[in-house]
Amino acid sequence: MAKEASTNARGFDVSRKELCSLMELRGAAALEKIAADYGGHEGLCAKLQTDPVNGLPISAAELERRRNAFGRNEIPPVPPKSFLRLAWEALQDVTLLILLAAAVISLVLSFYKPPNRDEFSALSAHVAATTPSSDGGGGGGGGGGGGDQSSGLTEQHAGWIEGAAILIAIIVVVLVTALNDWSKEKQFRGLQCKIETEHKFSVIRDGKALDIVISEMVVGDIARVKYGDLLPTDGILLQSNDLKIDESTLTGESDHIRKSPETDPILLSGTHAMEGSGRMVVTAVGVHSQTGIIMTLLGVTKSAGGEAQTSSSSTQNTQNSVSSIAAKSANRNGQPLNGDSLKAVANGQMVAASMPADVPSPPLNSNGAPVAPMPVEDNSKTKSVLQGKLSNLAVQIGYIGSVVAAATVLVLIVKFSLHKYVWGPEEKRHFEAKDITNFVDSIIIGVTVLVIAVPEGLPLAITLALTYSVKKMMKDNNLVRHLAACETMGNATSICSDKTGTLTTNRMTVVQSFVNSRFYKDNSPSWDELDLRTRDILVEGISVNSGYNTQVMLPTTQGTQKTQIGNKTECALLGFVLDLGQSYEEFRRKFPEESLLKVFTFNSVRKSMMTLIRRNEGGGFRLYAKGASEIILSRCTYILGAEGRVTPFGERQQRELIQTVIEPMASDGLRTIGLAYKDYVPVNGEPNEFPLDGVDVNWDDEESLREGMTAVAVLGIQDPVRPEVPEAIAKCQRAGITVRMVTGDNINTARSIATQCGILRPGEDFLALEGKEFNSRTRDSDGVVDQRKLDQIWPKLRVLARAQPTDKYVLVKGIIESKCTKNREVVAVTGDGTNDAPALKKADVGFAMGIAGTDVAKEASDIILTDDNFTSIVKAVMWGRNVYDSIAKFLQFQLTVNVVAVTIAFVGACATKDSPLRAVQMLWVNLIMDTLASLALATEMPTEDLLKRKPYGRTKSLISRTMVKNIIGHGIYQLAVLFGLLFFGEKFIPDLEQERARELPHEAAPTMHFTIIFNTFVLMTLFNEINSRKIHGERNVFKGLFANPIFCAIWIITLVSQILIVEFGGRWFSTAPLTAIQWSYCFLFGLFELIWGQIIVTIPSNVLPKFFAFGRGEVQPTSILVTGEYDIPEIRQTGGREIGGVPAPSAAARPGQILWLLGLTRLQTQMRVVKAFQSTLQNSHPSSLTLQAGDRLRQSYRRLRIAKEIERANELRSRGPIRAVDPEKKPKSADLNALSRRCLLCTRQEIVLVTNQNHQQQKNVDYFNTFIYNNGMNTMT
């Protein structure tokens, strides 16, 4: 009560609680409440102290007063994880925990002194005396000390150092991992902050329309709602132009709800404006809005106590909260809300909380709000291609590492047991407490081998590569919302792009016009050339029948262009009014937006807009219409001709106008807009006027209103192609990416723009279809999309004009689900409208327009193009491929280190008394190859060379044969050097003659021998890191090196750290200082890595068998060939060489098919059959074959030389239809020969192959198909 009193004391006649309770009502109940308690809409505005027309004053003090009274339009963010929590999570790695436990045990045992401790020196002396000097395999217990007695005792007293060093190394690994996680989360929060600040909403303040950041909106603001908006606050609708809202996220209703001040004025945050426009007064913001309340209950924001619900228990609490909300809430039909709907409400529009990566919440949309969950069918976006390949590879490497680690532990323990309990002194062949130390040391070495072998750096590498790429892509105008989309773009094989704004500048101007039966092709009409009637109708219709938020501002300085605000097509029309010397603002003042009687707003289905106004002169009403010229003209029965005379406009006149005006405009690449009107008068008037006398007109019946209109003008709007787009499309084509244009413009305009862009080129046989023809070709008689028919169209399709959003969705879905190519296509799609959302979601990568795109489109997208430019998509492709290459570089480097480190540790443990690399040293190597290498190699900048090769493909091996060659080659060199140093180092390295480190036990003091091995290994690894920057066999490994300062800095830091570790590491790192000559040997071995790399490059990669390439993704299943008969006109026009103008995709026959065919077929069919039946084929329709059939036909024709000719061909033609082939049995050669001869001559027969899932049956069918269509080549040629 005190709080409410405080609210009222701030000077408002309504409290926050009252407004919240009002927003819980719907329909008639809400209207009654507004009328009874607030005196209607105007009374509510008065209580909120706001002007329903001019809005709030622009006053910082007034806005702050409202924020204090009603709250801010923000949701308190979930606090970020603390650094300690991130470190704790990093410590949960299983291998680190095992290593930690072993290190603790080792540390404890180092301080434990058994009662018979003095016996240790005697055992050490015995081991030293009985060990042969020639090798390291002689007697002596593994626990014995090397050297003299005092040295062994000293090592025992200092035995705690290794355990402590391992603990410190673990701490370093944990801290580095936590630091990386903290940096990653910071980047995500920075990305979200950018998203939040970029999303704005239109409000009216001091009578001016302003776009402000949604967090600045306050209760009492007059907000302008338009098509495609995602509402950021709750509000009461004051004025509506056919406004329809999608409330499915809140109520679960799929139907769009028509909103109006008279029927249902309640607007809720998180809902979408699907059609129309309007104005609302904001009544609730932030956590006090309906969406904010539900988000709070769902645990997306802080709880009442201020603690974030981020644990797994909060997820259960969320479910309980949803249940409680469902019990208390009801939708507009009085039914309780379901849990799914309420969860989806949390996906509504807010300045959303910054969420750490593991918080169980939806992904963020472009406005900082969580995104609605993707449909279940969108499995392709749940796990990217690269992630799948890396997961498979990590499992394979992990298995190998586990086996080697277990073998290492087993060998060390067995060796110690043999030396102690079998070959040792008889009096010592019993278990002693100090023996536990040896077992623990063996486990430590084995676990360390596992730490190195298991590629735990892979997730870090891909995360770093993606986050780094995302950060850099923002500078290239790509705002990435889903990390996986960045990598997926590297595999893109097809891009379905919009035209307007993406391929073109989206700065539109009217350059041609048809008015008063005159075609102004090179100039615009002057005001004096138009008659009085046409003047008024033309200018008034353009001014009123357009969005009032669309404006064209005259240039303020000489030489600058007009500023276009809002819809660019409408801006072009308003610019045409200004060019006539008139002011559209004058007509808008005459007809303010609230005075408009009815508005049918433009959408992709209508492709037109209509506005109904009341005539000031003579009474009655006038309906203005504008839209696609063909659609508008088809509704007209009259036209304003010369001098404004009304003349009939029949079908003949329409066709003539289309041929003489619209088609020439479209051929010039212009968008054609038709303008029309219809008058409703009280009494009979002119022929084109509709009398109202005694007629009750239904103003909601759009179908009847738009009939019988009068055409006014056709305007040709120029939207120039962006200068950089043709080159960008050429880059895509060189990179193996097919670019398709999907547009709402007519076919001629679309074809012209596509030709200018390079999508269509002279001499190439590609398809350009309209939406109607596309649907007729791809759907069956029931209107259902037939994938087989679609597969005959899309490979050749380049332009889809007059396309509906459903057409774009069908095309994208069909390409993705097609099986007519070897690898599944990876499709990227651009979209800007609300209805583009399904296609954006279905695509592998959805690009939304940041400038022209609606909030709904942005919410459904993966990447937002902040400049709406196609060239930004090309940059996204480069970054995606760069991510792929960065991971491949890291893998090439890491696997080389893995192979060498694991091998040297295992062989060293087997051949000597101890591993040459101590646990702490291997942890340092692990740090180099995981964290530091991932930072260095994952931060390479992309180059144009990435666009000179084809996409990797979904089944392409992650590790190519070139990479395997590099891994094996460098591994062999490093192992040869290390084993040479291990077994023969004392023979050629100065000062090592007396050490024989391989004969010393684990407790021995650090030696220069093992230090040189460790140092040489690290230096070879460092120089090989430079080689690893190239994965495609390039010779110049230094190219672009200094363009990556991160790589250079990390490389130098690692080198300096290695020098310090060797010289000053001492017992902590089990190293001994080296002499200058020894350092020179180490550096020479390291530098030779660069020369050895050049030698490896010289060896061709194809010397390795293909199975050496590994890390493949999941192979996509191929389809069984089924042929059918389709009557496609292009077959007749091309003589049967193509089907529907579509060439067969590539799919080579398997070797087994070819071998079987060679054994079955000795038929010489080609030239003789062509000559024998040439006249017949010219007069008949050739066989209808699917794309797969044609492809197999061509492939087989190239591979096989047929040796036997067909006999009695003329007799076979008169025989009956071809019988179905039973795939249960492999066809006999004689049957196939006879059947093939009949297939050549039966031109309109349908071959039906009935198959099932049995593999052998499918093979038989494939053999038969290849045989039949190989022998059917003559019908095609």
Automatic annotation (TrEMBL):
Biased composition (Gly residues): 135-149
A Pfam cross-reference name: E1-E2_ATPase
EC number(s) stated in the UniProt entry for this protein: 7.2.2.10
GO biological process: regulation of cytosolic calcium ion concentration
Gene Ontology cellular component annotations, sorted alphabetically: plasma membrane
Catalytic activity line of the entry: Ca(2+)(in) + ATP + H2O = Ca(2+)(out) + ADP + phosphate + H(+)
Keywords: ATP-binding, Calcium, Calcium transport, Calmodulin-binding, Cell membrane, Ion transport, Magnesium, Membrane, Metal-binding, Nucleotide-binding, Phosphoprotein, Translocase, Transmembrane, Transmembrane helix, Transport
Matching Gene3D superfamilies: Calcium-transporting ATPase, cytoplasmic domain N, Calcium-transporting ATPase, cytoplasmic transduction domain A, Calcium-transporting ATPase, transmembrane domain, HAD superfamily/HAD-like
InterPro entries: ATP_Ca_trans_C (IPR022141), ATPase_P-typ_cation-transptr_C (IPR006068), ATPase_P-typ_cation-transptr_N (IPR004014), ATPase_P-typ_cyto_dom_N (IPR023299), ATPase_P-typ_P_site (IPR018303), ATPase_P-typ_TM_dom_sf (IPR023298), ATPase_P-typ_transduc_dom_A_sf (IPR008250), ATPase_P-type_domA (IPR059000)
Localization annotation: Cell membrane; Membrane
Annotated spans, Disordered: 131-153, 305-338
Segments traversing the membrane: 94-112, 158-179, 393-414, 443-466, 963-984, 1004-1023, 1044-1064, 1076-1097
Residue ranges constituting the Cation-transporting P-type ATPase N-terminal domain according to the UniProt record: 37-111
SMART domains: Cation_ATPase_N
Biased composition (Low complexity): 309-324
Membrane topology field: Multi-pass membrane protein
Molecular-function annotations in GO: ATP binding; ATP hydrolysis activity; calmodulin binding; metal ion binding; P-type calcium transporter activity
Role summary: Catalyzes the hydrolysis of ATP coupled with the transport of calcium.
Family membership noted in the UniProt record: Belongs to the cation transport ATPase (P-type) (TC 3.A.3) family. Type IIB subfamily.
Designated name of the protein: Calcium-transporting ATPase
